[in-house]
Structure formats: C-alpha cells, structure tokens
C-alpha cells in the first residue's frame, strides 16, 4: 500500500490486488472484498474436493448409496442423488438434487433443491425447494454434503406437515393419508423411476387428458384433489 498526497493535502490510497490498482478508498474496499471472496472460494473448493474424495472411499455407502458429482466440471455446482428410504412411498425411487455451493462454504449451507419432482409436505411440488432447518439457521461448519443428503433422505421418511413447504401436500397428508400415499407413490413412479406403479392414477390422468388438459396439469390437479376427477376438472376449468 502506498499513500500519496493530493493537491488539497488529502492522502490518496493506492492499492494493487491481483495486478489491479486502486486509487481511492471505495475502490480499495471493493478489492478487499474481492480478495476475501477469492479466499473463501479457495477454502470452499478445497473442502468440497476433500468431501468428494472421502465419499468415494466410504465403505458404509454400499447399502445406502449417495451420489454427488460436479456439473460441467464446476465443483461449485453439484448434483446429488438419493434413494427413497424403505417402508415409505418413495422406496426404491431415485431423486436428483441441485446443490449450489456458496463461496463461504462450509460456514454457510449449500442451496439445495429437488430437480426430480416429488410429493412431500416439506418439499415444493412445483419448485423442489426444501424446508429443512439444517439448510437454514441450524447449519454447522462441521456438517458435510453427505450428512446433508442423509438428513434430506431422513426427511422423506419423517415428514413435518406442521412446518410445510407445500401447504396442499401437507393438508392431504394430515386429512387423507391414504390419498397422500397413493399420490406420493405415483409421483415417485412417474418422475423417479419408482417401483410402485399406480394404474388407477394413470388412467385418471389419461381421462383428463382426453378432455383437453395437459398431462402435467391433469396430474397436478388430480393429486391436489385426492384423485377425484370431477373436482380436478372443475379446478382446471377455473
């Protein structure tokens, strides 16, 4: 850092970061922020590399496979894959998640959402956004991507309908558990290659499609209306 005196006797700060010169305090602050961000990115990258290596070496992953890989060689943009837990409507289905690593990782949590559509009270059926405390204020730097995905997998087995991300799904979960189980199995089969096909659901979707509605709209309406065709059709017409 060099300090020079200007015409009015005021000092001017000259800083050089990464080969760039700053001629005033505001620019200097911007460069300082840039350097901090770069340092944070380096820490995040090293941490992610270590976690991915440990995941590859893990021997306790065989019975409960969890996959994490980079998207297009960008280690800050990852994809995760989890398998639906046994004894749930999601059993045997594979769900893909988007994992965006912040530059301040592991001190702040990743941004995570489902890319595979899923019917669950704590996951948006439209956007895949997840309501889970460790993805917010309960995150700790000691946590890892693996423990995070295991927590999301556990959420599939233990929904929290009183703290929902999707109010429609939560309402069905609490008021008509049978309809919820049927819907969750159907979505897992259609979107996540789950083993539990629901032929009756598929037939009802087809019937609404014959009435001129799209497949996705028909499935969403029937799912939210407990698979009642007249109610779903009325909802779509409105």
UniProtKB/TrEMBL annotation:
PANTHER family, per database record: UBIQUITIN-CONJUGATING ENZYME E2
Signal peptide: none
Entry annotated with the keyword ATP-binding: yes
The keyword NADP appears for this protein: no
Record-linked CDD domains: UBCc_UBE2K
Family statement drawn from the similarity comment of this UniProt entry: Belongs to the ubiquitin-conjugating enzyme family.
Protein source organism: Echinococcus granulosus
Span of domain UBA: 198-238
Lineage: superkingdom: Eukaryota
InterPro entries: UBA, UBA-like_sf, UBC, UBQ-conjugating_AS, UBQ-conjugating_enzyme/RWD
Active site: 131 (glycyl thioester intermediate)
Protein known as: Ubiquitin-conjugating enzyme
UniProt keyword annotations, A-Z: ATP-binding, Nucleotide-binding, Transferase, Ubl conjugation pathway
Molecular function, one GO term: ATP binding
